[in-house]
Amino acid sequence: MKPRLPTSQPAYVLHQHDWSESSLILDLFTRESGRVAVAAKGAKRPYSQLRAVLLPLQRITVSLSKPAKAEGGEVQTLRSAEWGGGATLPGGAALFSGYYLNELLLKLLARHDPHPQLFDAYADTLAHLADGDAVLRAFELKLLAELGLLPDLSVVTPTQASVDPARRYQLSPESGVIPASGDASLAGSLLVQLQAALLHGSPAALRQTCAAAPQALKSTLRGLLHYHLGHQPLRTRALMVDVQQLLDA
Predict the structure, then answer these.
(1) Which residue ranges make up each domain of the chain?
(2) How far apart are CA 104 and CA 122, in angstroms?
């Protein structure tokens, strides 16, 4: 039996699609209930107040009723939604980055699996999307750690020996932290600092640590995510690459 959802809770719209001529099915990321599917009845009507509220990358407060059956699966019914304050919809490259975060959550989070700390990290990340790639790397690390897909970065996984800050290591999806044997490697000192920042729980500290080696982390984390996504391509990532190529041309 799924846990009873709170009467009112903060949430973000990850994705939406048409349900009928006047209604939508939403994928919401909520703090207390995790990722949930929600029917927003009448949201597409011209004068519906929900049209200006149910936007991606903006914090909202939602009230949900008992589950209903829609499209063959359990779907909550949206009773009300209000703007929750905070930053408005980002623009430019930050907008693409925000959609990239949403796609990661859609593909990696199971439904009805609450991750309140990940929700807080997501909210904090949205407020810093314009600060550069280190922000995305920090969220990817937090996401993998919250889902139990990231090993202890301060320990060499096969031997359980402490990582030597003076040596270089690789982060393998199957073997964890192992001594480096190729070009794609990370400094042991960086791994130790990343693990400390993750344990400390400070988003700012994690972003600052990621900023020390954003390109190396990008390559490593891309490999980890690719593995755990089951080799599903990320559409937002491909779109970001295409846009960048157009800008460079």
Answers:
(1) 8-83, 93-248
(2) 11
Quickly name the fold that domain 93-248 has: de novo design (two linked rop proteins) (1.20.1440)
Do 8-83 and 93-248 fold alike per CATH? no
The pLDDT profile of the chain, 249 residues, written as one tens digit per residue, is 454 545 789 999 999 988 888 889 999 999 999 999 999 998 888 888 888 899 999 999 999 886 655 444 578 889 989 998 776 777 777 888 999 999 999 999 999 999 999 999 999 999 999 888 999 999 999 999 999 999 999 999 999 999 999 999 999 999 999 999 877 799 999 999 999 999 988 899 999 999 999 899 999 999 999 999 986 667 665 555 544 444 444
64 within 8 A of 11, measured Cβ to Cβ: no
In the block, residue with structure tokens 């290591």: 169
Q: How many CA atoms lie within 13 A of 113 on its CB side?
A: 10
Token code pair at residue 248? 């460079």
Here the tokens at position 146 are: 């919250």
DSSP string, 84-112: --S-----THHHHHHHHHHHHHHHHPPBT
Query: Residue 116 and residue 230: Cα distance in Å, rounded?
Result: 25
Structure tokens at 82: 């209000």
* pTM for the predicted model, two decimal places: 0.88
- Name the CATH superfamily housing domain 8-83: Nucleic acid-binding proteins (2.40.50.140)
